[in-house]
From TrEMBL:
GO MF annotations, alphabetized: glucuronosyltransferase activity; metal ion binding; xylosyltransferase activity
Name of this protein: LARG2 glucuronyltransferase
Coiled-coil ranges per UniProt: none
Record keyword Glycosyltransferase present: yes
Keywords: Glycoprotein, Glycosyltransferase, Membrane, Metal-binding, Signal-anchor, Transferase, Transmembrane, Transmembrane helix
Record's bilayer topology term: Single-pass type II membrane protein
Pfam families in the cross-refs: Glyco_transf_49
Organism, scientific name: Sapayoa aenigma
GO CC, any one term: membrane
GO BP, sorted A to Z: protein O-linked glycosylation via mannose
Cellular location(s): Membrane
InterPro entries: Xyl/GlcA_transferase
């Protein structure tokens, strides 16, 4: 983390607070990219079309709750609400809930983690001056399995259902929103 981000964490009193700091994600289709040195430079690249909001064209639900329109002009961290399939990149305290180890490979690791953080009433705070850029790369072996194997997708669905049951046992009625959201998709 940069000094700026460390200062942001200190100002937000993260060590004493249950918060997940969301780092807005962008992507490029170029294999070579001069990384923007500032938010203003990133916004210019976004407006010129050399950067895009992350996965906007294939999986917008994953990052849409970040509210990129608000981020463009934000100067202070802002809170966002959990939504189904939200899978932002986050900075959290070391003692936060760990990723559920059932979700290895491709599918639902970040989604389940954010759901667990939300169930534990973590604030989801978008950092106004932070960003990351995903660079293009060959598809992973696991995403290929996900795309090509009905068995893989079936196992993932079973694990999702088990995860929902575990949330219900741990958090009771508060976890119903996750199951309701899943069923309405």
């Amino acid at each position: 983390l940069s000094c700026h981000h460390r200062n942001s964490i200190q100002q937000l009193e993260l060590p004493q607070r249950k918060a997940a700091l969301i780092v807005p994600a962008f992507e490029t289709l170029h294999y070579r990219l001069t990384f923007p040195k500032s938010k203003a430079e990133l916004l210019s690249m976004l407006d010129m079309g050399s950067l895009y909001t992350f996965r906007y064209h294939v999986w917008p639900k994953g990052h849409a709750p970040t509210d990129y329109a608000k981020w463009r002009t934000a100067t202070v961290p802002y809170r966002v609400a959990w939504q189904p399939d939200f899978e932002p990149y986050v900075v959290v305290r070391r003692d936060c809930p760990k990723y559920d180890q059932r979700f290895v490979g491709f599918g639902w690791n970040k989604v389940s983690h954010i759901m667990e953080l939300d169930a534990q009433e973590y604030e989801l705070l978008v950092l106004p001056n932070a960003f990351m850029i995903h660079m293009p790369h060959a598809p992973s072996f696991d995403i290929s399995k996900f795309r090509l194997s009905a068995g893989y997708r079936g196992c993932l669905q079973t694990l999702r259902e088990e995860f929902h049951q575990d949330l219900s046992r741990r958090y009771g009625a508060a976890a119903l929103k996750y199951l309701t959201a899943e069923r309405s998709l």
